[in-house]
């Protein structure tokens, strides 16, 4: 189990918020580099002829590789210095991004997407684990929320790829982003460090190895915990909801309200991403504030968020008034984000500190796999003449199941560091 930490030890180490700020930029690059390709479809296909199925495979292969690599990637962050794993991950995926601009065939482009899946998988578990290392007290959820905000900014900036591709070339976007990541890696080399040891003045050296960590023993220990398995089911089902809602929302707006593709896309992203960004910050603040007096606050805040977002999805899929649908989807995005900002802090309450990054890597794997199945299932249901309103109503019911699972996740021991 996680170690007990006294109130004095729960004070923030030096540079705790600087680490969050640095990783916000990395998180932004992480999601921008992975999503930018989706906004340059026409330019890429004009230059490298391919079918729509092949273009879809570019994203699918990234998701599959990313998901299956995540547990091992998390283990690397537990075994070795987290800062080193983060910097190597950033350097490699940035180099791959730059290399993507030199692809001249579909097979080469597909290979770069697979390599990006491996290298990017190493980032999120290591980054979240490092943030929770620095923020062990009443700032843990908010610090995680700021990092999630950086990720969402990266998602929302994906349109830059399409703009650069139209003004210059699709290869230019990958060259710029890859070069920016490589340069930032060298900036981090002088600043980013793991949390200092309690008895040390200087941070840990970059080459440190945690010899008390074993991959197979860690996997066995994680799955032996009832709370971990409940949370895994909760996060996987929530992945189905998230991928299904966001993946089909532009289509829902277009078909249900007879909107143009451009307007539907604006409503599906322009309102939801800002709401989600506010949600991760608000969810982190509320969990930290409430956590001072209630040790289960980091569980209750996302649970309450789910109980609000579930009916919002149901009503949004039932109304024929566009303004009401937008309002309900915005509240869904706002309160659903409470789950994102508190997932790693909750995981820290139920697993051994040595395997928190490995545990999050497992969560990532299942979320990607099950989320991909959810997207496919949505398409299959549409082929069977099941409308998206019914799909979203089922998603609302699934969210209530997630809330029930989250309520059942009772950690055997809650660190004093979670609340002090």
Keywords:
single chain, disordered N terminus, 420 residues, disordered C terminus, mainly alpha
How would you describe the overall organization of this protein?
- The chain is mainly alpha-helical.
- Helices cover 75% and strands 0% of the residues.
- The relative contact order is 0.16.
The helix tally amounts to 17
Number of strands: 0
Largest sheet: none
Task: Report low-confidence residues grouped into runs of 5 or more.
Answer: 1-9, 199-203, 414-420
Give the topology.
Blueprint: H1 16-35, H2 41-47, H3 52-79, H4 82-100, H5 106-121, H6 123-134, H7 140-156, H8 159-167, H9 170-189, H10 215-223, H11 226-256, H12 261-269, H13 272-291, H14 297-316, H15 322-350, H16 356-383, H17 388-408
Provide a quick synopsis of the model.
This protein has helices at 16-35, 41-47, 52-79, 82-100, 106-121, 123-134, 140-156, 159-167, 170-189, 215-223, 226-256, 261-269, 272-291, 297-316, 322-350, 356-383, 388-408. With 420 residues, the chain is mainly alpha-helical. The protein is globular, with a radius of gyration of 21 Å.
């Amino acid at each position: 189990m996680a170690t007990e930490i006294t109130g004095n030890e729960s004070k923030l180490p030096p540079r705790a918020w600087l680490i969050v700020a640095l990783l916000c930029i990395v998180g932004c690059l992480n999601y921008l580099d992975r999503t930018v390709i989706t906004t340059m479809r026409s330019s890429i296909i004009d230059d490298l002829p391919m079918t729509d199925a092949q273009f879809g495979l570019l994203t699918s292969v990234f998701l599959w590789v990313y998901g299956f690599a995540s547990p091992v990637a998390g283990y690397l962050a537990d075994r070795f210095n987290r800062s080193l794993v983060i910097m190597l991950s950033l350097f490699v995926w940035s180099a791959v991004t730059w290399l993507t601009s030199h692809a001249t065939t579909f097979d080469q482009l597909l290979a770069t997407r697979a390599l990006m899946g491996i290298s990017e998988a190493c980032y999120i578990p290591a980054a979240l684990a490092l943030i929770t290392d620095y923020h062990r007290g009443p700032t843990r959820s908010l610090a995680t929320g700021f990092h999630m905000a950086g990720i969402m900014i990266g998602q929302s900036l994906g349109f830059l790829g399409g703009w650069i591709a139209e003004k210059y070339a699709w290869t230019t976007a990958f060259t710029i982003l890859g070069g920016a990541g490589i340069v930032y890696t060298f900036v981090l080399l002088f600043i980013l460090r793991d949390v200092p040891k309690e008895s040390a003045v200087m941070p840990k050296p970059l080459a440190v190895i945690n010899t008390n960590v074993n991959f197979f023993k860690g996997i066995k220990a994680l799955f032996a915990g009832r709370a971990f398995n409940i949370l895994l089911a909760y996060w996987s089902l929530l992945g189905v909801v998230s991928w299904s809602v966001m993946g089909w929302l532009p289509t829902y707006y277009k078909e249900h309200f007879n909107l143009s593709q451009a307007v539907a896309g604006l409503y599906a992203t322009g309102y939801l991403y800002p709401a989600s960004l506010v949600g991760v910050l608000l969810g982190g603040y509320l969990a930290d504030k409430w956590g001072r007096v209630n040790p289960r606050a980091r569980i209750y805040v996302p649970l309450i968020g789910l109980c609000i977002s579930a009916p919002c999805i149901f009503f949004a899929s039932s109304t024929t008034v566009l303004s009401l649908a937008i309002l309900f989807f915005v509240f869904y995005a706002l309160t659903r984000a409470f789950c994102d900002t508190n997932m790693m802090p909750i995981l820290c309450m139920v697993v051994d500190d040595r395997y928190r990054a490995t545990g999050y890597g497992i969560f990532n794997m299942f979320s990607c796999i099950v989320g991909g199945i959810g997207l496919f299932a949505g398409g299959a249901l549409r082929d069977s003449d099941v409308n998206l309103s019914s799909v979203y109503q089922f998603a609302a019911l699934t969210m209530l199941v997630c809330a029930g699972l989250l309520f059942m996740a009772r950690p055997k021991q809650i660190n004093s560091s979670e609340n002090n």
